[in-house]
Write a structure and sequence with these properties.
four-stranded mixed beta sheet, 3 helices, 35 strands
Length: 569
């Protein structure tokens, strides 16, 4: 009897061991292809738990195949990541013995071609997701939970989304070529750990062709550095050119810029940025006038502890600190008119600088020399066709004119200190000394016995000083983000001191407020109200009366206002 019991126990143990052995040896395999069906070599494939933590990671072979052997049975998700593709994930994969999961990778272009989903059959399985973006073939591509960020680009719980979209509706006034209603859509994506993509489209609903757009790409090369490219286009059908006697010289201003550069790390202590901007501008109608320019730049820096010494050469004038990199304005030079011909503002700037930064403070000192070509002068006017303003770009919506001033050269120094304050606040002080174009001050309404051409010729360079203070922070409890800045320089200056300075503040008193209206629990997505005021006290205006009775009011910075709503998801 004892022998029978022992035999039964041995049999049960053997069966249980066989069952456990079978349970521990499921597998997941498949093929990764692109939308055209081409197998993708070297694509990374991740096996994820239901909470999206990574179980294992493999790479596809020469035929696009991958395999996860010896997987415990259960429910998993499988995600594929490939070069130049958005990630693709299959969820709720039930692993038993040999489970096949084939994945398709889509490019950003294919994602932008999404169409509404086709009707689904009544017998089709319902989605586990509150919202789903589908392709024209009804294939799920990007999905997000009702109370969570996009999942297909998350590496695990608690991490930030790697795909961000932002929609903006704003109204603004006092800006050249930008006044009026504007609608914008921006997309920031990280298809993989080493790649970033940025795209934005901004258009004016009151015109058929008014639009700005930009597309940027960054590829991280690891320890060696990175390569980056940006393309920007701006179409302003309302901007016109005025010729001698006020005759129209062209209608509709088109601008295009392509910027490509490489960041290089040499031994960890030495780094360099080298690249160039290729830009051109033309009138869309009534004129063959077109101007092009190649604007190279390079920076070399040497690090030692918290200090950096650098040399910088550039021919492209950057925008002010309040212009973020998603706006085409950050990548396009200012265009004006000179003697009836389009002119691009640029120059040759060289500097040697020293910088020291810690977690709480920063200090910078720069010595520079520069030549400035075609500095753009901006004026407000009640000009009408047939008046006395020759050789200018006119935006009839905002009433602003742009004209090119005389070229000049200068040397100078730029210094700044900054410090992080408690509760997320920040303060920055800046000082600059250098040349700027000035125009003789005139009392309001006083007649000037000169033509506009002679008036522009009166502009001449003079050494001036600039002082700036910037404060920013977040208000506890409300989440309000604010920034206030004041940049002063003499009122008779019509161009900035140190125009090639990076992250320079806009002239005079400026205020920016970002007020969250509704944010999700992750603090990342939701509605936000925007409010920006430029040159709040309307400082620096210089009025000149023309012979026809119209008034030109030159100013380095126009008073402007922008307000609107933004939705980020």
């Amino acid at each position: 009897m004892r022998r029978v019991q022992v035999a039964v126990c041995a049999a049960l143990i053997a069966v249980g061991g066989a069952s456990a052995s079978w349970a521990a040896h499921g597998s997941v395999s498949g093929v990764v292809r692109d939308a055209a069906g081409v197998p993708q070599i070297g694509a990374e494939v991740e096996l994820l738990r239901p909470d999206l933590t990574v179980v294992a990671s493999v790479y596809t072979d020469a035929r696009g195949r991958y395999t996860f052997p010896s997987i415990f049975p259960g429910r998993y998700a499988v995600k594929a990541i490939g070069t130049m593709f958005l990630p693709s994930m299959r969820e709720n994969v039930r692993v038993r013995t040999n489970t096949i999961v084939n994945l398709t990778l889509n490019t950003l272009y294919e994602v932008m071609q999404w169409l509404p989903a086709q009707p689904r059959a009544a017998s089709a399985q319902s989605d586990d997701w509150a919202w789903t973006l589908r392709s024209a073939a009804n294939r799920p591509l990007l999905r997000w939970l009702e109370d969570g960020p996009l999942v297909v680009v998350r590496e695990g719980p608690g991490t930030a989304p790697k795909l961000k979209a932002r929609l903006l509706a704003t109204g603004q006034a006092g800006t050249f070529g930008e006044s009026g209603e504007r609608y914008s859509a921006a997309l920031e994506a990280t298809p993989a750990n080493s790649r970033e993509l940025l795209a934005r489209v901004d258009f004016d609903p009151n015109t058929d062709a008014g639009m700005e757009s930009m597309l940027g790409f960054r590829q991280d090369l690891g320890y060696a550095g990175s390569v980056q490219s940006v393309a920007a286009v701006a179409l302003h059908p309302e901007v016109t050119g005025t010729g001698p006697g006020g005759a129209q010289a062209g209608a509709g201003l088109d601008e295009v810029a392509f910027r490509s550069w490489e960041s290089i790390n040499l031994g960890g202590a030495l780094e360099a940025d080298v690249g160039a901007n290729q830009v051109f501008a033309r009138f869309a109608q009534n004129s063959p006038n077109m101007v092009t320019a190649a604007l190279p730049f390079a920076t070399v820096g040497w690090h030692s502890g918290n200090a950096t010494v650098h040399y910088r050469l550039t021919t492209f004038m950057p925008g002010t600190a309040d212009v973020d990199e998603t706006q085409s304005e950050a990548w396009l030079p200012r265009v004006s008119s000179q003697n009836g011909i389009l002119a691009i503002e640029h120059g040759l700037h060289q500097e040697i600088g020293w910088e020291r930064r810690t977690d709480a403070t920063g200090m910078t000192v720069v010595v520079y020399a520069e030549n400035i070509d075609n500095p753009a002068l901006e004026a407000m006017s009640d000009f009408v066709p047939g008046g006395g303003v020759p050789s200018a770009l006119l935006d009839p919506v905002s009433g602003l004119l742009r004209m090119a001033g005389p070229d000049f050269s200068t040397t100078g120094v730029l210094a700044s200190v900054e410090r992080n304050l408690p509760h997320g606040n920040h303060v920055r002080l800046s000082y600059a000394n250098g040349g700027a174009l000035v125009m003789p001050l005139s009392s309001e309404g006083a007649a000037v016995p000169a033509s506009t051409v002679q008036m522009i010729a009166m502009a001449h360079p003079r050494r001036a000083q600039m002082y700036a203070l910037s404060l920013s922070g977040v208000i506890d409890g409300t989440g309000t983000r604010w920034q206030a800045s004041y940049r002063w320089q003499p009122e008779d200056t019509v161009t900035p001191v140190a125009p090639f300075a990076q992250d320079a503040m806009a002239p005079y008193l400026n205020l920016s407020i970002r007020q969250p209206i509704h944010a999700r629990r992750d603090g990342y997505s939701g509605f936000e109200a925007l409010f920006n005021l430029g040159n709040l006290l309307a400082e620096g205006y210089q009025p000149y009366m023309l012979s026809d009775g119209s008034i030109l009011m030159f100013a380095q910075s126009q008073r402007s206002i922008q307000a609107g709503l933004a939705f980020t998801f």
